[in-house]
Amino acid sequence: MSFDHRKYRPAPVIALADRQWPNRVLEQAPTWCAVDLRDGNQALVEPMTVAQKLQMWALMTHVGFKHIEVGFPAASQPDFDFVRELIERNLIPEDVTIQVLVQAREDLIIRTFEALKGAKRAIVHVYNSVNPTQRNYVFNSGKEGVKAIAVQGARWVRDHAARNPGTEWSFQYSPESFSSTEVEFAVEVCDAVIDEWRPAARPMILNLPATVEVSTPNVFADQVEWFCRHLKARSEVSISIHTHNDRGCGVAAAELAVLAGADRIEGTLLGNGERTGNMDIVTMAMNLYSQGIDPELDLSDMDAIVATVGACTQIALHPRHPYAGELVYTAFSGSHQDAIRKSLAAEKPDAYWDVAYLPIDPADLGRSYEAVIRINSQSGKGGVTYLLERDLGLQLPRWLQIDFSRRVQAQAEASSSEISPEQIRALFEQHYLEPLHGYRVGRFQLGHDSQESLRLELQTPNGALQLEGEGEGAITALVNGWERETGMHIDVLDYSEHALSAGTESRAVAYVLLSVDGARMCGVAIGRDVVNASLQAVINGAAQINIEAQAQRQRA
Fold it and tell me: pLDDT digits over 80-117, tens only?
């Protein structure tokens, strides 16, 4: 029998009968530290390029992080180069402190301080594993030997900081695998590290990682509270938490750890990280927000966050992901739709949010109510999708299935009759495939240097328009050119394409989901090849907003 629970043993618990954390409530946001550029990046199949790291950096500073871990410069030349680029190009805002990770080895610490030369302020984060498994099997050392590694690492960090007085240094130490370590020993090691750092009078952070989540969140909270109670110099340090999600409880463990005395939380946007991921800062911050607590992060443009993280990590977001998923504010049940509709009708402008099935107002995150209350029939949507694939060879992505089924349902209600397959095909062609109101892609030219460059002639109702743009691909270049011309902001939220099963072999169809100035638009096009279809699909989606804006100006 291979599936045998008897090969495992439960994690030990702490005798803490007078625990205080269950009686506390969350009242303010912790200090956040985003570790997407290091801990998140090391977990990717394809680590981020410098361009992608800069894109993530821009997102994190825009969202409002004040502590950002930017890499492990001593272990990776790309990380070293990225840290140098941030410093030399003066890309670090005045109120942001960068953090770098390093093992407790002098050669790596020396290299780390080389990477940080010229930084106005920085956190040097040194760590070593202290749990019994690694003591026994990795280091082949007892407690004293492992503690000596930590103390020596702290001493090296202190001494090299003193040799580089031009930077405001902060010191951070992690007893790696804290969650699997005897809390008495974790305190002993951290007390020894503090003794090395206290004379330097630098800000100190002790980071307690659940490197592997091994117990329920309440046990982790007990560990944190016990640690905070027994640390000799608790008032002199900031207690930081770094949880992982092996048991699916990373956010819960971090929240309870704050109740247990933690001041600071490390995590990643949307939870990317080793194995099952890091603690998801978006979820924890939005949990605070839903309770009337300022998360001190700006998550109002959730579509842009999802698009940027997805583009940089190449990881698609689950449609049921808390707060950020495509379907989390959507009700398919008729009774849910009715309750939401009636609650929204009863909402008063100055009252607290109180809507059935919606813990927060989707509009706060840039989502529309159209996505919340929509007509849906699983069988109807499935039937429509089947007919389009059978008759036109189209393989609609889920978001387009939902958008089009809403149009089909509206027409069915208006006509009070059954809609035939011929009507369904005609409706799809009318709304998606025909160049929208005369917006048609004409001749275009692509250049290939460090980036794609695009020159495109666009036929519009007012005549030909020349668009020029640059980007990492043809679509990005077109979006760049369209934004220059119209001033609109576009995020590409999803894209797919395939060859058509009907017609000539060279024809292709492209589907694109756009966020245009915060409004979601679907674009579809069939072209002689993938590039042609992709460009026309973007225009078909983006032009809808342009047409609406023109109509509003005319009405005004």
Answer: 999 999 999 999 999 999 999 999 999 999 999 999 99
Query: Where does 30-313 sit in CATH, by number?
Result: 3.20.20.70
Pairwise CA distance, residues 528 & 506, whole Å = 6
The CA-atom distances, in angstroms, between 267 and each of 85, 149, 256, 271 are 23, 26, 15, 7
Tell me if 244 is assigned to a ligand binding site. Answer: yes
CA 543 centroid distance within chain = 28
The domain defined by 381-433 folds into: Arc Repressor Mutant (1.10.1220)
Structure-block tokens of residue 80: 């070293």
Predicted TM-score (pTM) of this structure: 0.77
Residue 39 annotated in ligand binding: yes
Going from N- to C-terminal start, the domains of the chain cover 30-313, 334-365, 381-433, 436-555
Q: CATH: 3.30.160.270, 3.90.1150.10, 3.40.190.170, 3.40.50.2300. Which one for 436-555? A: 3.30.160.270
Q: Dump pLDDT digits (tens) for 38-73.
A: 999 999 999 999 999 999 999 999 999 999 999 999
242 is in an annotated binding site: yes
Distance CA 111, CA 107 (A): 6
81 labeled binding residue? no
Residues 6 or more apart whose CB falls under 8 angstroms from that of 537 comprise 510, 511, 512, 523, 524, 525
Cα–Cα distance measured from residue 166 to residue 451, given in angstroms and rounded to the nearest whole number: 37
